[in-house]
Amino acid sequence: MLMNNPNSQSGVGLIEVMVALLLLAVAIIGYSALQGQAIKVTNESLERSQSLVIMRMIAEKIHANPSAIATYERSLNVAGTPAAPSKLCGLDGGAITDLCQPAELAVAESFKIKSELQNYDFQIQMHPCPNTGGTGTNAAANIMYSYCLISAWGDTTPTIGTNENKDCLTSRVVDGDAVKEAGGSYHPKATCMMMEI
């Protein structure tokens, strides 16, 4: 006849509970890290979507008023909040009291865009595209010359240059007539988008 040992235990011991809690904690920490990464990716997607919509809107305005493209460039690249133009060309929702010239319309549209961008966490500028010969004094004579709309968020600025911690795109590197680097590539750490118009 077998007898139960009075010193034997039945049920779950403290060590088993601690191991189970450790495994649960590791699983929860892993899940939390995954959630954090998912939120970051979702925010990045939202920034890109908003940026793309605004850049398309700007490109359509420029295509409708191509003779004032240099005015768009100057007005969009103004740092901070631009001063209100003397003519808003009916863009303020009011009646159009007098007609605007193409450059006046470009200034008014750029002002409205820059004002609306204050509600978002990104900036937009317009620069000659470096990969299409958009550098130097003879850039506009290049048959492939075009402009790039650049939007950036976070620590990145919508600029072209060599500072990989700030600039969005790499710059064109030339040695006389020889092109060493075409430029126009995204810096590895950049949070930005570029659209050629």
What does this structure look like?
- There is one protein chain.
- Among the domains are: 66-119, no CATH class; 122-197, no CATH class.
- It has three helices and five strands.
- The chain has helices at residues 14-64, 69-76, 102-117, and strands spanning 122-128, 147-153, 173-175, 178-181, 192-196.
- Strands 1-2-5 form a three-stranded antiparallel beta sheet.
- The chain is elongated and about 100 Å long.
- It starts with 13 loop residues before the first helix and ends with a strand.
In round numbers, the mean pLDDT is 81
Q: Tell me, briefly, the overall form.
A: elongated
Order of helices and strands: HHHEEEEE
Helix content: 25-40%
What's the total number of strands?
A: 5
